[in-house]
Amino acid sequence: MSTLINISKWLADNIFGEPAVLIGIIALIGLLVQKKSKSEVIAGTIKTILGFLIIQAGSGVVVDAMGSFGPMWQHVFGIEAQPIQAMGTDNFIATYGGTVTLMMTFGFLINVILARFTPFKYIYLTGHMMFWLCLVVTGIFVEAFGPDVSQTKILLIGSVLIGIYWTLQPAYVQKYMKKITGKDNIALGHTVSFAAWSGAKLGSLIGNPEKSCENIKVPKAFDFLKDSNVVIVTVMGLFYCIGAVLAGSEYMGNFTGGKNYIVYGLLQGLKFGGGIAVILYGVKLLISQIVPAFKGFATKVVPNAKPALDCPVVYPFAPTATIIGFAAAFVTTIIMMVVMGLTAFYVFVPPMIALFFHAAAAGVFGNATGGVRGTIIAGVITGLVISLGQAIFVKYITPTTVPDFILWGGDTDMFIFGSILKFILGIFS
Questions:
Q1: What is the enclosing helix (H) or strand (E) of 286?
Q2: Confidence of residue 110 (pLDDT cuts 50, 70, 90)
Q3: Is residue 312 within 8 Å of residue 191, measured between CB atoms?
Q4: I need a labelling partner for 220 at 20 to 30 A (CA). Which of 1, 104, 377, 384 fits?
Q5: Could you report the per-residue pLDDT of 318-357, keeping only the tens digit for each?
Q6: Are the CB atoms for 294 and 305 separated by under 8 Å?
Q7: What DSSP line would sit under 316-377, residue for residue?
Q8: What is the model's pTM?
Q9: Cα–Cα distance measured from residue 28 to residue 7, given in angstroms and rounded to the nearest whole number
């Protein structure tokens, strides 16, 4: 058992834990089975990895730019995070890390087998979400059955559930992915799927795809807003500057490093926009390489399979919708933060990074079926699920295991499907 755990841990640390390596290997296999020339194999593999690393680099810039955003707005509303008494993520991984990594490995193998022998031809390649999802699922099992629960039982049941989720999750949103991309060659592999599907579904009922966010007409004096990069920087710069003014120079001094707090807000908005521009470039490079390479993998190993990729893959198809979706989610969470705080139900901590990546992707899905209205409703759904989901998870679903992770990493699918899982496990506990 220990040897198996060590092998799985090595695979998790060096392959699944490094999604750039995982995607590079998939591209390498795909190009080799197509018997491409050495030059094409080397170039295609390197460009695939490079595209992914560029996305990660851009995401890092966005994460850095968002670092003071949440604390700043919490200070504006006078809200402090609640003290948490639990194992905590570090201690939880030290105890259950072997189970988590084995679940990743076996879950991926089950995903490949299901894709090979069922009509659902999707291979889940979003490595970091694979790890976090297995962590939360393990936490739910421990909460349901207690700390003495058999880790073998967690592993067997959890791997099957995870493998099924990684196969079916891309499938049930693929209808809308085809509408967004205009093709059927890539899929969405991300835990935003519930918000994306709900936004697209409701968007089709209340909105009009002809009134797309990308067709928004603005007065000539505001022509500069036609550039998505300028829109993103402008909106985030405003959010930051307003928040900095309301928080005050004394509080903002904790983050500005001696700079004027208004100038600091503007710089953070610019940095955020720069990060998004880098992500969009990386996505274009990745798609241009992974799709042709994946044809080889799909033909030989899983015929007709499609790669299920991280959520930024949809951003280039509706960049204005990404920022409108985020703005709608942000306003929703602010309202929920005030409501929950006033009712003393829960002190909500806005997870700004998860909120942006989820709401931006959901906004693109809502825009595809409902235009501006669809984008806004998708953002509202994301904000509601994340704010209520965080409260329910921290208080009732994972209160003694990984609630600290939930504060910054919890997301829509974890909250929806995790709550269902906890309810079902509760019947048998």
A1: helix 261-300
A2: very high
A3: no
A4: 377
A5: 988 988 998 899 899 889 988 887 776 776 767 777 888 8
A6: yes
A7: GG-HHHHHHHHHHHHHHHHHHHHHHHHTTS------HHHHHHHHHHHHHHHHHHHHHHHHHH
A8: 0.76
A9: 22
The sign one gets for the Cα dihedral 194, 306, 63, 325 is negative
Rounded Cα gap, residues 262 and 72, in angstroms: 13
> Helices in 85-192 by DSSP H: which ranges?
89-117, 127-145, 151-181
Sign of torsion over alpha carbons 34, 39, 45, 48: negative
- Per-residue CA distances from 415 to 28, 43, 133, 144, 382 (Å): 35, 40, 11, 16, 11
> How far apart are alpha carbons 364 and 229 in whole angstroms?
16
Measured over the CA atoms of residue 35, residue 39, residue 42 and residue 44, the dihedral's sign is: negative
* Spatial contact of 322 and 358, defined as CB atoms under 8 Å apart: no
- In angstroms, the Cα distances linking 165 to 130, 156, 172, 237, 420 are 11, 14, 10, 38, 13
Spatial separation of the C-alpha atoms in residues 275 and 58, rounded to whole Å: 4
Query: 54-91 pLDDT, tens per residue?
Result: 877 876 787 777 777 777 877 877 766 666 667 877 78
Alpha-carbon span 56 to 214, nearest angstrom: 26
Buried b (16+ CB within 10 A) or exposed e, 229-252: eebbbbbbbebbbebbeebeeebb
How many Cβ atoms from other residues are within 10 Å of residue 396's Cβ?
A: 11
The dihedral sign for the CA sequence 170, 176, 177, 178? positive
Question: Phi/psi at 123 (nearest 5 deg)?
Answer: -110, 115
Q: How far apart are the first and last CA of the chain?
A: 26
- Reference 410, options 378, 388, 377, 380; nearest CA is 388
